[in-house]
Amino acid sequence: MIPRMKLHLLRYFAVLAEELHFGRAAERLAITQPPLSSGIKALEDELGVKLFDRSSKHVALTPAGLAYLDEVRVVLDRVARAGDTARAVAAGRRGRLDIGFTGSMVYRDMPAIVRAFGERAPGIEVHLREMSSREQTEALLHRQLHAGFINARLVPSPLRSLPLAPDHFVACLPQDHALANAAQVDLHALADETFVMFARDVAPANHDNVIALFQRAGIQPHTRHAARQWLTVVALVAMRMGVALVPATMAQAAVQGVRFVPIAHLEHPTVGVLAWHGDAMTQALETFLAVASEGPG
């Protein structure tokens, strides 16, 4: 690797090799001829070879100088591109974002936001990583993710969050359930059912949000099965392992064997935020958050 203090000598050499005239080369470099001459001599002394044949009337590259010019141009080009890359990343035009998401976010805002961001900032690569809400929170706190779509209402400091578009709960029933084709179902009509629940250790907010529904209705649910993803909850219902309350957007998963029925007289939004570390902002992340704040439409 060329030492940083020698980089200007490479530029001196490349310009002189193009001009083959000390006066014109010095003018292009915005320096006087003496430092150009001493710089070329220092470079030749460092290499131990003669790069130019020169006299008072003639400057020409030696065979060694001609071969060296090809290599120097590669080095200078890479240095220039490295600078362009650094400036582009700093300006948010190039780079990478690592974005976490829970499985259910595939059916909510996340895909539309990522697509819209791709159109706004095509030079930024978005890498999606499916993780539980708890895993994402830990990764964000340790700055291992730039942002995450998580099932939560609140995030710990110093994380910050942006609420996602609202969703609401519906009853998920096996397709042959007596109430599967009803226009709506009263939660009390399911009081004696076995419920499939979201595992609390994975996403406490998901679990607690469903429990809050039961509490508001004055029901103590009988639960037997716990799952780590909403899609698994729906799949267990399809296999007649019980019934469940799930986000309405899970109907987009098109799982066979289930019906999604509105809950009568009970409006309860699901939780969901886009979270990020407040002290780890980049220009690319700012653009991503701006796109998210505009909505998935």
TrEMBL record:
<dbReference type="Pfam" id="PF03466">
    <property type="entry name" value="LysR_substrate"/>
</dbReference>
<feature type="domain" description="HTH lysR-type">
    <location>
        <begin position="5"/>
        <end position="62"/>
    </location>
</feature>
<dbReference type="InterPro" id="IPR005119">
    <property type="entry name" value="LysR_subst-bd"/>
</dbReference>
<dbReference type="GO" id="GO:0003677">
    <property type="term" value="F:DNA binding"/>
</dbReference>
<dbReference type="InterPro" id="IPR036390">
    <property type="entry name" value="WH_DNA-bd_sf"/>
</dbReference>
<comment type="similarity">
    <text>Belongs to the LysR transcriptional regulatory family.</text>
</comment>
<dbReference type="InterPro" id="IPR000847">
    <property type="entry name" value="LysR_HTH_N"/>
</dbReference>
<keyword id="KW-0238">DNA-binding</keyword>
<dbReference type="Pfam" id="PF00126">
    <property type="entry name" value="HTH_1"/>
</dbReference>
<keyword id="KW-0804">Transcription</keyword>
<dbReference type="GO" id="GO:0003700">
    <property type="term" value="F:DNA-binding transcription factor activity"/>
</dbReference>
<dbReference type="GO" id="GO:0032993">
    <property type="term" value="C:protein-DNA complex"/>
</dbReference>
<keyword id="KW-0805">Transcription regulation</keyword>
<protein>
    <submittedName>
        <fullName>DNA-binding transcriptional regulator, LysR family</fullName>
    </submittedName>
</protein>
<dbReference type="InterPro" id="IPR036388">
    <property type="entry name" value="WH-like_DNA-bd_sf"/>
</dbReference>
